[in-house]
Amino acid sequence: MSRVSKPYEIVERALELSRADGCVVISDEESSANLRWAGNALTTNGVTRGRTLTVIATVDGGKGTASGVVSRSAVTADDLEPLVRAAEAAARAAGPAEDAQPLVEGVPASADFTDDPAETGSAVFDAFAPALGEAFARARAGGRELYGFAYHELTSTYVGTSAGLRLRHDQPNGTLELNAKSPDRTRSAWAGRATRDFSDVDPAALDAELATRLGWAERRIDLPAGRYETLLPPTAVADLMIYQLWSSAARDAVEGRTVFSKPGGGTRIGETLSPLPLTLRSDPHEPGLESAPFVISHASGDDSSVFDNGLPVPGVDWVRDGKLHRLLTTRHTAELTKLPMAPTAGNLILDGGGERSLEEMVAATERGLLLTCLWYIREVDPATLLLTGLTRDGVYLVENGEVVGEVNNFRFNESPVDLLSRATEAGRTEKTLPREWSDWFTRAAMPALRVPDFNMSSVSKGV
């Protein structure tokens, strides 16, 4: 075995090899476990292990500081020097980095920096798998078929810098997606959950929820395109709010390129976005949604900078009591825009002050649509943040407080910022899995929203 094999040793050795003026080394130690099933039976399972090493070299010059970034997977001790040299060569070949800042200093070292990485494995499903088997039996007896997958990953990230930082963060991340289908495939329902360790996921409860939805779909009602009072469940709200956060870079707003740009110059910070007392926030210490408390940046952009690696991430209110409060900034863009420092975080929470569950909001609906989730969301116009996408796996008609049947799917055209201004009710905030963005962003808590005139722009033939 190589004398340099543990993550912290890899980081330290890469820093020793550096000949650049500055160096940041990020080691991502990744492990994952998964289960997949179809037609009420497990089909595959697996466990993976891997390492990705990122070296960021900075080189000072007469015109400024340049940076070079090189990432490689499956890195061993023998690969270190070529990787470090490649990053240095990339920095010397690059022009001065616009986002150049002094490397972060003064952050206390993580006490577990020299410990072995945390790992997940098939044991994470020890309680979940038997419960899933019982759900298969109930579904089979009820005349429905279950499809889906469970995925758990654990990434231990080690960050070391030539400025003295030695930081580590362990990030667990689990997702469950479950589809129930009628044997003739004409009816489909979906449910998803995000979890840190699968101890809080109940397959029986999910199967019961899906059975109810398939029952609603036994009656089919065709509706035309139009504007409908619509109940957006937490998963759909999460997909929209995440896209709004991703579109809230301060620099883009100051330069007049986004929905958060103020006509005539400046930003809309301080403007009321919603009449409801909504607060959209991120907090790396949010219970159950914990994320990295310091910046981990593998590349630079308008909302991230490799020079900010290790910078503490505070809790931030993006929208506070209905008013736009902060926009995403790096140290560079904060200086450029004269706005407060607000780095991106790994979770997103929308607090609306409501107490009603989605079921209680349905019971209070005279006539409207209840969505399951949104799908294939794409941007149409960045100036208004107009998005388009599809409904999927169940749109239901509510009349006099009861679901009376399933309607056809739709294509929608809506801006999340505009939706906030028109929402008339927010329900109880709960943890949710954003379906569209679950490969990139899973740590979210959202309420259901009532929108009186959601724009279903055309009918979709999707199931």
The tally of domains stands at 2
- Spatially, the strands of the biggest sheet line up as 3-2-1-4-5-6
- The portion of residues assigned to helices is 10-25%
Structural class: alpha+beta
Strand elements, count: 20
Summarize the biggest pleated sheet.
6 strands, antiparallel
The fraction of residues assigned to DSSP E strands is: 35-45%
Total of DSSP H or I helical runs spanning 4+ residues: 9
- Tell me the distance between the termini: 53 Å
The SSE string, one letter per element, is HEEEHHEEEHEEHHEEEHEHEEEEHEEEE
The overall average pLDDT, rounded, is: 96
> Radius of gyration from the CA trace?
24 Å
Low-confidence stretches: none
Shape: globular
Folded structure, characterized:
The longest helix is centred in the N-terminal third of the chain and has 14 residues, at 80-93. The mean pLDDT is 96. Helix 3 (128-141) runs parallel beside helix 4 (203-216). The protein has 2 domains: 7-213, 2-Layer Sandwich (PmbA/TldD fold), CATH 3.30.2290.10; 219-463, no CATH class. Strand 1 (22-38) and strand 2 (41-61) form a beta hairpin. The chain contains 9 helices and 20 strands. The termini are far apart. With 463 residues, the chain is α+β, with helices and mostly antiparallel strands. A 6-stranded antiparallel β-sheet has the order 3-2-1-4-5-6.
